[in-house]
Amino acid sequence: MAGKSISESGRLFKSPVLEALTKTHIAFPLTIFYGTGAAALLLTLFRLQQPLVTSLVLFVVGMFFFTLVEYLVHRYFYHMDTTSPRKARIQYVFHGVHHDHPRDKKRLALPPLMSVLVAGMFIGLFMLVMGLPGLAFGGGFMVGYATYLLAHYAIHVYNPPKNFLKVIWKHHNLHHYVGDTGAFGVSSPFWDHIFGTMPEDPLARKKAATAKA
Questions:
Q1: pLDDT at 5 exceeding the cut of 60
Q2: Are 184 and 67 in contact (CB under 8 A)?
Q3: Nearest Cα to 140, choosing from 54, 63, 46, 45?
Q4: Average pLDDT over residues 80-87
Q5: Of the residues 12, 43, 47, 178, which has the fewest C-beta atoms closer than 10 A?
Q6: Structure pTM?
Q7: Does a structural domain hold residue 6?
């Protein structure tokens, strides 16, 4: 059949180099972020010889902290007010194209070069602020990022599982197909509950209306 596959999206840049940098296979960023997270924890424990319990706690806190950053970036950057053509272009390149083509597998994660830069930037930032303990915290943050990428990819590529994880499938689909002014958390709906951005479930509304009739 002629035409473009529904799992692919259009061109963003005229430059073939820039265009290539907008696409990746999910395996590359997952390897980079999970690998960076594991390496950071191992270096903290065996090279820097930081306390085991403290390092593990910081690692877990770093994972949880990522869910907040994920929520805030998605809400305030990916869905910024497009009050100018420049902002509209930035928003579309970073996120709008994903809403137009949610099944494009090659644009569900940062490409390798950007992944390396992001990993290095955050690890460096946390160590600058926290000192040596920031390495364990940053490692957890990287694992949180990788888990988010894995969840986001799975939601858009696979059918929802028949277990408790189907909650995140439903939550993200509300964001894409009901209204993008809510449900900003991907790896968890936790912060949407905290900040009051949980959208109304249309099925629940329909059931409630039926029950009142």
A1: no
A2: no
A3: 63
A4: 88
A5: 47
A6: 0.88
A7: no
Residue 20: per-residue pLDDT: 76
Query: Residue 74: CB partners within 8 Å, gap ≥ 6?
Result: 95, 184, 185, 186
Length of the chain (residues): 213
- CA-CA distances (angstroms) from residue 117 to 82, 178, 192? 26, 34, 29
Residue type, 36: T
Structural domains counted in the chain: 1
Q: Measured on CA atoms in the order 117, 112, 189, 57, is the torsion positive or negative?
A: negative
Specify the amino acid at residue 69.
V
Domain residues for the domain of 111 are: 18-161
Tell me whether residue 130 is in a domain: yes
User: Does residue 119 fall inside a structural domain?
Assistant: yes
Cα separation, 142 vs 33, in Å, equals 5
Distance CA 114, CA 149 (A): 14
What local confidence, expressed as pLDDT, does residue 6 receive? 46
Structure tokens belonging to residue 39: 């390496």
